[in-house]
Amino acid sequence: MAGAALAVLVTGACSSTQTADPAPGGAATSEATAPGTAAPGTATTATKVQTVRIEAGEVGSQKLYTPNNLDLKVGTPYVLQLVNTGKFRHEFTAAKFFPTVTFRNGNGPQGKLKRLPGGEAEVGAGKQMDLYVTPTKAGKFVIMCEIPGHREAGMEGTITVTT
User: Fold this and answer.
1) What's the Rg (C-alpha) of the chain?
2) Helix then strand then coil, % of the chain, to nearest 5
3) Helix (H) or strand (E) holding 122
4) Can you tell me whether residue 102 is helix, strand or coil?
5) Above 60 in pLDDT, residue 114?
6) Would you list the domain boundaries of the chain?
């Protein structure tokens, strides 16, 4: 792990699970209307929050994210549901992506998370962590599990953010 990485370990049930149809790129998404800031010149504007479920798990000796490639848009708020469906703890490390997003809040063992400065979230076996983010920068970012042997066993992917 990088020296500056901040690991967040989820030890309790953090949120409910949503089921949704896969979106382009294979990520399960759903929409919810959340209060947002009104755009200039409008009386009421609601922000559409997109929910993206990312599962980490194992199939035999292979370790993987499902989906392993995400497509996000700058300025769109998302709930990233980091779900560990496996038997081992897994990390969701995106050291170059997480510093480019704004965090609204997230559920963790100690309450709400405001940010992940180290770019890493660790989720225990059978647990879930929800991160509420809005991308602010376009680019292609690597996501991986830095637990020894996991990336080599296939646990990596990309987050592509477009304008």
Assistant:
1) 15
2) 0, 50, 50
3) strand 120-123
4) strand
5) no
6) 24-30+47-162
Alpha helices for the chain (secondary structure H): none
Predicted confidence at residue 102, as pLDDT, reads 87
- CB contact at 8 A, 98 and 158: no
- Look up tokens 């199939």; give the residue: 59
Number of residues that this document lists for the chain: 163
Q: Which residues pair with 84 in a beta bridge?
A: 56
Q: Is the pTM of this model over 0.90?
A: no
Q: In the CATH hierarchy, which fold is given to the domain comprising 24-30+47-162?
A: Immunoglobulin-like (2.60.40)
Token pair of 106, please?
């997230």
pLDDT of residue 35: 41
pLDDT tops 80 at residue 162: yes
User: 37-52 burial by CB neighbour count: b if 16+ within 10 A, else e?
Assistant: eeeeeeeeeebebbbb
CA dist., res. 119 & res. 2, Å (int): 10
Phi-psi group of 111: left, alpha or beta (phi > 0 → left; psi -120 to 50 → alpha; rest → beta) = left
Q: How far apart are CA 47 and CA 35, in angstroms?
A: 6
Nearest to 27 by CA among 3, 56, 2, 55: 55
